[in-house]
Amino acid sequence: MASPVAARGGAQSRRNLRNGLFFVSPWLIGLSVFMLYPIVASFYYSLCEYSVLQPAEFIGLGNYQDLFSDELFLKSLSNTLVYAAISLPLGLIVSLGLALLLNTGVPFMSWYRTVFFLPALVPQVAIAIVWLWIFNGKFGVLNQALQPMLDVVGRALPGDPKLTAPGWLSDPLWSKPALVLMGAWGVGNSVVIYLAGLQDVPKQLYEAAELDGASWSQRIRHVTLPALSPVILFNFIMGIIGSLQFFAVPYVLSPAGSPSRSIYFLTMYLYDSAFTHLRMGYASAMAWILFLIIFVLTLLALRLSERHVYYGGE
Amino acid sequence: MDVRSAWGKLVVLLILTALGLTFLAPLLWMISTSLKPIEETMTLPPQWIPSELRWENYSKAIMYQWDRAEDVVPPFARYALNTLYVVVLAVAGTVISNALVAYGFARIPWRGRNVLFALTLATMMIPFPVLMVSVFAIFRSLGWVGSFKPLWIPAWFGSAFNIFLLRQFFRTIPNELSDAARIDGCSEVGIFRHVVLPLSKPALAVVALFCFMYTWNDFIGPLIYLTDKKMFTLSLGLQFYQSQHGGTQWNMLMAASTIVVLPLIVVFFLTQRTFIQGITLTGLKG
């Protein structure tokens, strides 16, 4: 027999359930219509021949098999992995380096922070267009600045070799480094996150290190970096997810990934397959491979970092 | 050398100034080119300061290919209006829906809440391309492809990241405040509106600001769903403009880019504190 208190508790918990469901109801719809159903449908489509104009036709693992003999897919996959492998560590070094410099207690710190943050505000399409102009082979301001320096270096080297500035976006060898450079320009977000993380490093740790006679570089290595490691890991994982889905900038530079498909990335091929060739099933298979890669790399990052990441609270 | 000594500080300051100028250079070059006459964009060596300021580049960029019979406003103004339309509806939807949902997760204990919340967090792992094709198929069957609806209607149904952000914030509001209101006979909706929302303005501002930035910059959404040139957003219009010009009229192209970038920079300076707090919140507590 239920006591009056329990009965009241039952009424209360029913009311809570009703209220709770009322408040989360937009998300119940959003979650099922824009998340759960699309996930299931996309997996099913990846096993289908599907043009969106006609109903999907089940073909088993055909799309996945085709992908691994599709040279354009393998090319876009390797482009994506190469780009991520260069841009991730570089972005980490640039943003962390800037944050450490900003954190030395220099005057006008917030002004400098604003300057480094501004490029992160620029929309992807505008980034692509502005840099297209900067990298321009003939009138580009970058090579105009580089060439005199290269001339000096060339004269100093034995044999006086004539060094010429790279063709950047017109040279398949230099187009990816050009994109990496553009990416490094937009690290402002991470700089701000690192700076906030640096404020949280306990002051007594620095004081203790200083009493032990640690130099600036030693304090960075043994105090700052370990204390900041959870934030570094967070930024690194966000970086993995972002760089593997790189789309707008290279698409605006060249929808076909020119020169020689050197900046044709996985998401670009995925977009083309789905919306240019109307091969929605094929595109879905690609999306699941992308998901798998992101998933594995994230797990790997978490596992490898286990021994190096230090959580202050634990 | 110690970075806190006078010399150390000077060296750091010099390095930061050099790097800062490098970071500013592309933006300054964009603005400088946007004000030049076309001949001056092709001088060697490049000139940083235009010999005269051609403000009419901006009006020309806005007026470009304006067919008055077809539209009452010039194309770039049309793109800006389209963008504003989508941004306003998306921001309103994002703030309202995520605040409601986050309240349901943060302030009411109900059976199944934690399971649903865990599921919500798990969906953050799913990259956009996985959802792209099926969501397109849904909107196509609704007949919404070629309209603005796919760009703002989903915002009214919550998103995992914003729910998480607001839930964390709502949880910091003392429960005593809700309990006091409850004793006064206030309904749950009343507590949400009169107790929790007024105390959460900073977090709501962060969510609104990020949604504004995201929607203003969004490229792949409009690229997939907008088919009529008259309905392009600024990002898509800018890309269209660039593909038409094929890299010749750089001064006009830079003027158009400046028009797209400038509002974001103005908004940033107006809301700098909210902005920096928001990024910090997502990076450290996220």
What distinguishing features does this structure have?
heterodimer; A: 314 residues; mainly alpha; MetI-like fold; B: 286 residues; 0% strand; globular
What's the SSE blueprint?
The complex is a heterodimer of chains A (314) and B (286).
Chain A: H1 4-45, E1 48-49, E2 57-58, H2 62-67, H3 71-102, H4 109-117, H5 124-134, H6 141-156, H7 175-185, H8 188-199, H9 203-211, H10 216-244, H11 248-253, H12 266-276, H13 280-305
Antiparallel strand pairs in A: 1-2
Chain B: H1 6-34, H2 56-63, H3 75-106, H4 113-122, H5 128-141, H6 149-152, H7 160-170, H8 175-183, H9 188-199, H10 201-217, H11 220-225, H12 234-245, H13 250-270, H14 272-284
Helix pairs in contact in B: 1-13, 2-13, 3-7, 3-10, 8-9, 10-14, 12-13
Please give a structural write-up.
Chain A is mainly alpha-helical. Chain A folds into two domains: 45 residues, no CATH class; 241 residues, MetI-like fold (Orthogonal Bundle), CATH 1.10.3720.10. Helix content of chain A is 70%, strand content 1%. Chain A has a two-stranded antiparallel sheet with strand order 1-2. With 286 residues, chain B is mostly helical. Chain B folds into two domains: 58 residues, no CATH class; 171 residues, Orthogonal Bundle (MetI-like fold). In chain B, 69% of the residues lie in helices and 0% in strands. Chain B is built from 14 helices and no strands. In chain B, helix 3 runs antiparallel to helix 10, helix 8 runs antiparallel to helix 9 and helix 10 packs across helix 14. The longest helix of chain B is centred in the first third of the chain and has 32 residues. The mean pLDDT of chain B is 91. The chains are: A mainly alpha (314), B mainly alpha (286). At the A-B interface, helix 1, helix 3, helix 4, helix 5 and helix 8 of A face helix 1, helix 3, helix 4, helix 5 and helix 10 of B.
